[in-house]
Design goal:
heterodimer; A: 576 residues; alpha+beta; three-stranded antiparallel β-sheet; 15 helices; 20 strands; B: 324 residues; 13 helices
Chain lengths: 576, 324
């Protein structure tokens, strides 16, 4: 016997116990968890914002998702930031450092920021140059666990001649220097040891200078931000609070905005628009963003493992190594139809990597001409065969008898991409090229060099996905299109030049852009590289995605900014 | 009995180690990994990538990673979430109360409906009521739960409105109205739809258990004896029949313990409920190995313990059962 107790008595007391336990549990559970009530109580001044991803944490130097900065933008600010035109504007600094205003030294290696007078953290402590210095020290600390260290390791020192002046001195010239402190300044007094950065309490409750301060984060449910009493620009912010509601999916958010339970729903897709447009009280904000869906075309023989430039020249891709075939593929794609049929006309036809922003380069949209595509393939030695798929007969790199057949890959579980693939198969069939599909989960496609990811190792024909340059496009342009950025064994898989494209003019232009502090010079250089890109087609751009958010009419003052996050001007928001 | 329990617990140890090993290896066999989150970021160099991979211990061979994990666990360290960098027990602690809250109330509602109906259905076997209950129970078990949840939202949140205020009849998700002070009524209001969703499936199952168990008991000799002695029907049913029929149901209840921990993935996802089910799914999408291992292993421990509990309770409640 476990307990010296008569069985009947046990059953009886069990019943009594059960009843009282149930009553007790019910009372306890209904009151649990206690949940923090919003202190001011007024709901008129509150905006609820639906986010379909929960941030991992709220430290922009560690975390990777967009959802993270959608939250921190309300509270964490950088020295400068991007406005809705993709241009820099000062946030904590008084002005954007330039050569003209003396903020950038002649060699471009020392950058001077002046902080606004009387700046305070949301706990009332002053913001000083020491915080800027600390941000650099913390992020560049080898044990920090920070993901975003680009540029920080190139900084030699941060000098603080007085509390409101920060002079950032680089070891070597760093072209995107204005990007350096856009992710936010870390408060030295409210963080901790840089070596312990991943364990900071700050990561869960960041202290910032922005219009709102973080009150609470209820895991999986919501994040409440309340008005920052020390915000520099009184009487702003106008709202009492912003509540970020974490929803399990985008679809839940679109339902909630219909009933008015949320005021803003983040990151809609084109297919949501016809559903939300007719709903009274709901508006759609959409603008072309930097995201460009493209076909990444492998110029090297996919049988080789990560060949360096010299090898690529010796062993081109048997089919795609011929520029005429790449041109035929682009001419065979009806970009207009993809936009109209699948994207409700909300996208822009793809042209090159720099479709918008300060470095925008205008190149012509490719025409849709299957006839011309067929001619090109004929010329390139790909002859029609009875089953409709062309066969090599005197092609440049392929053995005679090779079928014009290519593997097309994209991420699984994305309906839009699967529909685009169907159209592409159709278009290519009409010019005698066969695409066959082999989709893979995004975690595999975007896998690392060390995990043997096929994209990094160059073992593919054509891969379709979206990527985008930042407001400063340098890391993207260099990473994807400079010949020294092909991932190879020699560089431990560094870079994103998966197409394995090398072009002397593009290389020189990228080098020039990376060494100049003059935005006009850089823009011209990037555009020279883009002209080569459009000719050589290592990437074939399909369409540019718009950024689409839904909001209710009562939200006033919001301006869509595709370069940063929805809450970028939250200090100006109010409700009707 | 004590020896029996001791033996069962000892047997559980190698089983748990085996479970953890198999799950760990399976998780690492899934193509992709936590580092893929950084894979498309032009601001990260290969050196950054390698540094982070090393910091997280992901560059070691799988068996080394497993032994490190097991070693830390034996020292009582469940590790840190790869995504949030917080201790995994803190992550679980944030979500567990919400799951227990929802599921225990659903279970109470389920039993409150299922037990009387199951008994009634058994007592009036082959009556119209019995046929109706059996049919509805089958339907309840067969309905895809996610479809049913979405229907509840469409009908009671989107379509039907309060005729006076025009507000939705029931909230479409969440545990309480954000930004409002605490109110029991608001809590109850938010429970209506998710509890209904869980109770429909649960009730269907438990009604059938209760009915089957009751049917078996009321065919027994001692029930006939009780009737022959002239005991009133009510007393025979509740005192003689139900007590014995309830024994298998009580033991099945013990198996609900791991469910209370693991949560209800569909319900939590459809009703934006921040519980364990969603935590598990989100961690799976993020390849958050440490968190996944903790959830799976704690779930396994609870399953083993509750099975043992069920067996012990069975022996305790039914004197005919003995474990050597």
């Amino acid at each position: 016997m476990l307990v010296p107790l008569d069985r009947r008595c046990f059953v009886r007391s069990l019943r009594r116990f059960c009843i009282s336990a149930l009553v007790g549990a019910a009372v306890f559970l209904l009151g649990f968890p206690p949940g923090l009530a919003y202190p001011q109580g007024a709901r008129g001044g509150t905006i609820t914002f639906a986010l379909y991803q929960e941030p991992e944490l709220l430290n922009r130097y560690i975390g990777t998702q967009t959802a993270l900065s959608e939250v921190t933008i309300f509270t964490v600010e950088g020295l400068v930031d991007y406005n809705d035109k993709g241009e820099y504007f000062p946030r904590l600094a008084t002005e954007v450092p330039t050569r003209q205003n003396g903020g950038v030294s002649a060699d471009g290696k020392s950058i001077t920021y002046h902080l606004r007078d009387g700046l305070k953290w949301s706990d009332g402590q002053p913001v000083t140059c020491e915080d800027v210095k600390f941000t650099w020290q913390a992020v560049s600390h080898p044990k920090s666990g920070a993901a975003y260290t680009s540029g920080f390791r190139d900084i030699d020192r941060v000098e603080c001649p007085n509390p409101t002046t920060a002079v950032v001195v680089y070891k070597t010239f760093y072209a995107p220097y204005l990007d350096q402190f856009t992710r936010g300044i870390l408060p030295k007094h409210a963080t901790g040891d840089p070596a312990e950065m991943t364990r900071w309490a700050y990561n869960r409750k960041p202290l910032g200078t922005g219009p709102f301060a973080l009150l609470e984060w209820v895991s999986g449910d919501h994040i409440t931000l309340i008005r920052n009493r020390f915000y520099r620009d009184s009487p702003k912010p106008f709202l009492n609070a912003v509540i970020i509601r974490i929803t399990p999916s985008r679809e839940v958010g679109t339902q909630l905005i219909k009933t008015g339970e949320v005021d803003i729903v983040w990151d809609l897709i084109e297919a949501n628009v016809p559903e939300l447009r007719p709903v009274p009280g709901v508006k759609i904000g959409a603008a072309p963003g930097p995201n460009a869906e493209r076909l990444v075309v492998n110029l090297a023989d996919p049988a080789l493992d990560a060949p360096p430039p010299a090898e690529v020249a010796k062993h081109p891709h048997p089919i795609l190594g011929d520029a005429r075939v790449r041109e035929a593929i682009e001419l065979g794609i009806n970009k207009q139809e993809i936009n109209e049929k699948l994207l409700y006309g909300l996208a822009t036809p793809g042209t090159n990597e720099l479709g918008i922003g300060w470095a925008k380069c205008v190149t012509k949209v490719s025409e849709y001409s299957p006839d011309r595509a067929r001619q090109l393939l004929d010329q390139a030695g790909w002859k029609s065969s009875p089953d409709g798929i062309r066969v090599a007969q005197g092609a440049k790199f392929a053995k005679d008898g090779t079928r014009l057949r290519l593997k097309l890959q994209t991420t699984t579980g994305n309906k839009l991409r699967e529909q685009v693939e169907q159209l592409l198969i159709d278009y290519m069939k009409q010019i005698g090229l066969e695409f066959y599909i082999e989709n893979i989960p995004s975690a595999v496609l975007f896998g690392s060099w060390s995990s043997g990811a096929f994209r990094k190792h160059g073992q593919f024909d054509v891969v379709m996905y979206t990527t985008n340059p930042d407001a400063d496009p340098h890391s993207q342009i260099e990473g994807y299109f400079a010949s020294w950025k092909m991932p190879t064994a020699a560089n431990n898989g560094d870079g994103f030049n998966y197409a394995r494209w090398s072009n002397q003019v593009a290389d020189d232009s990228i080098k020039l852009a990376g060494s100049s502090a003059d935005l006009a010079v850089r823009k011209k250089a990037y555009c020279a590289a883009m002209d080569e890109l459009v000719k050589d087609r290592p990437h074939i751009y399909l369409y540019g995605r718009s950024q689409i958010h839904g909001y209710r009419e009562r939200v006033q003052g919001w301006v869509l900014n595709v370069w940063t996050n929805v809450g970028w001007n939250a200090q100006d928001w109010s409700v009707k | 009995m004590a020896a029996y329990i001791g033996r069962r617990l000892l047997q559980a140890i190698p089983l748990l180690v085996l479970i953890s090993l198999v799950v760990f290896v399976l998780l690492h066999l899934i193509p992709g990994g936590p580092m893929a989150a950084y894979g498309n970021n032009p601001n990260m160099t290969a050196a950054d990538f390698a540094r982070l991979e090393h910091d997280l211990g992901l560059d070691a061979p799988v068996h080394v990673q497993y032994l490190r994990w097991l070693g830390a666990l034996l020292r009582g360290d469940w590790g840190y979430s790869l995504a949030s960098k917080r201790p995994v027990l803190v992550e679980i602690g944030d979500r567990l109360p919400n799951t227990i809250y929802l599921l225990s109330i659903s279970l109470a509602v389920t039993l409150g409906i299922a037990i009387p109906i199951g008994i009634l259905s058994a007592v009036r076997q082959y009556s119209v009521l019995d046929h109706a209950v059996t049919t509805v129970a089958f339907a309840g078990q067969s309905v895809p739960i996610f479809w049913f949840g979405l229907m509840l939202i469409i009908v009671f949140h989107v379509v039907l409105r309060n005729p006076v205020s025009g507000a939705p009849l029931a909230p479409g998700g969440g545990m309480y109205t954000l930004g409002e002070p605490f109110s029991i009524l608001d809590r109850l209001h938010h429970l209506i739809l998710p509890v209904s969703m869980l109770a429909v499936v649960g009730t269907a199952t438990y009604t059938r258990y209760m009915r089957a168990s009751m049917l078996e008991v009321i065919g027994q000799d001692y029930i006939r004896t009780a009737h022959a002695k002239g005991a009133p029907t009510r007393r025979v049913l509740w005192h003689h029949a139900f007590r014995n029929a309830a024994i298998p149901v009580v033991t099945i209840l013990a198996l609900e313990v791991p469910v209370l921990f693991n949560g209800a993935v569909f319900t939590e996802t459809i009703f934006s409920w921040p519980g364990m089910g969603r935590l598990f799914i989100e961690s799976a999408f993020r390849y958050d190995y440490a968190l996944l291992m903790a959830i799976i292993l704690i779930g396994a421990i609870l399953t083993i313990v509750s099975n043992l509990l069920a067996d012990v309770a069975y022996a305790y409640l039914d004197p005919r059962i003995h474990y050597g």
